[in-house]
Amino acid sequence: EDEQIVAEIMGRRFFPDLIAYKSWEGFHFAGHEIRITEATDCYGAVVWPSALVLCYFLETNSKQCNLVDKKVIEIGAGTGLVSIVASLLGAFVTATDLPELLGNLQHNVLQNTKQKCKHQPCVKELSWGIDLEKNFPRSSCHFDYIMAADVVYHHPFLDELLLTFDHLCKNDTVILWAMKFRLEKENQFVDRFQTLFDLEMISNFPSLNIALYKAMRKGRMKA
């Protein structure tokens, strides 16, 4: 079953028949052909399999996870694929990442959502752990969903990442987080994450070494 579903997920990716002056990859989600421009010299500007897993979940579970008119923030949005799919599914999306990635992120989001979505998504800078209250004040920022794909890997900002999850998450916020397991240091982040949040694995793909989690604040997980 794992291999069958993984084949379906990875089958959503396609490549152009002809190589154009500007390289891109294509994906089929939410009834649309999505074209993503990548930058192979930067981790944050590449579509990783975890993003495909999360997009596939959003599309195939649209009844239990109805995004229409919901406020969604994606942290570490990278190329913007997850934000684009969430937007096409009716959400009001804020796609965030580091300042050096915003140009490519804005390009991908705009070209794939303009005049196609109920709510036009916005792109905003978010450096984990920095100026969180200034840029995303608790009193006025409320998100129904926080989405993240492959934000946990070998980087020195895991403390800041956890702080960011904590700041953005209200009592009724749902976190959807796709993670590829690599090294023990990154895996330990899951244990630390669970000191603040109830965590439930909702999909697991051993052939990809990727798990998809749903999380809420401690004691707030809903059936």
Write the layout of secondary structure elements.
Elements: H1 2-10, E1 13-14, E2 25-29, E3 32-36, H2 49-60, E4 71-74, H3 81-88, E5 92-97, H4 102-113, E6 122-125, H5 132-135, E7 145-149, H6 158-168, E8 174-180, H7 184-193, E9 197-205, E10 210-217
Parallel strand pairs: 4-5, 4-7, 5-6, 7-8
Antiparallel strand pairs: 1-2, 2-3, 8-10, 9-10
Protein architecture, described:
The protein is of the alpha/beta class and 223 residues long. The model has no long low-confidence stretch (mean pLDDT 90). It has a seven-stranded mixed sheet. A three-stranded antiparallel sheet has the order 1-2-3. The protein starts with a helix and ends in a 6-residue tail after the last strand. The longest helix is centred in the N-terminal third of the chain and has 12 residues. It has one domain: Rossmann fold (3-Layer(aba) Sandwich). The protein is built from seven helices and ten strands. It comes from Sylvietta virens (Green crombec).
